[in-house]
């Protein structure tokens, strides 16, 4: 007779129970073991879910960053919008490199309004700021301002001033030394970061405008040439300052002299800040009594781009009193006859044609002259 099925199952269960009991400590209940096994399974499931979630988050974050980068590179405005502030942490090498970028396609794929960059090279305060503020008023889209002063100077312009937060990172600039040209190059490089700046005017704290803004903008924007003096002067203050050790980069026949105060276009501004061919020679061999700021730019640009130079300055100065510095004018000099002589008695060449006026700016004016200049600005200058 065959055993009943129930008996067979009971024997099998008994055998399995015996096997399990061999691995269970006698003092550990079966229910507790099953609970621990269940908790272990739940822990493994939670660990897997957590790993999957983190992996998805990392992929999503990386994808988001990639998308953002792609969007920025496609956004033309990020390239053409002028810097919101003149403050940055670039040193001169980094700044000049960044400012030297030149688009190869000359036609702009956007509406560009060319601006004049007014660059003030000062020791400290700008005593003529009120007069310049009146000059700039109402022309915000046509100009930008950059100020290079002694590093120790702390400007205190109000937010309503055109000069508010327009001081760039500066270093000490000494008259007649290469540090003066370094400061001018630093101004140019900062101004070049704004792609809308097309013309660059170097001024001092003692300079004033001689015309209203629209007249000066029209004059500069319609000129075929840049305004920087570059003369071959045979005397001791010209060729007499040349050092033969500057050849072959600069020969005596190349040597030029001109005013420190210039107006140049964007092409020449880039040429100046990217130069490393002439710069070492001038830095090493043009020291007082050479006065490098009167020779470096005029000589270099006369060699490289003579066809772009008007060979004169737009800034009037009076050297008639002699000495190493031009005359300074105070309150008592501000008369009708004084400005009539400056504004109307000179003739020059503009775009290869006889022209008047010749000067758009003048120096040197002391702080005492400011009140009288403001009182007569409409009569003298038209603003």
TrEMBL record:
GO terms for cellular component: membrane. Its main location: membrane. InterPro entries: BC10-like, Glyco_trans_14. GO terms for molecular function: glycosyltransferase activity. It is found in: Membrane. It holds the Pfam family Branch. Keywords: Glycoprotein, Glycosyltransferase, Membrane, Transferase, Transmembrane, Transmembrane helix. The keyword Transmembrane applies. It is a single-pass type II membrane protein. It comes from the Eukaryota. The chain crosses the membrane at residues 32-51. This is Branching enzyme. It comes from Handroanthus impetiginosus.
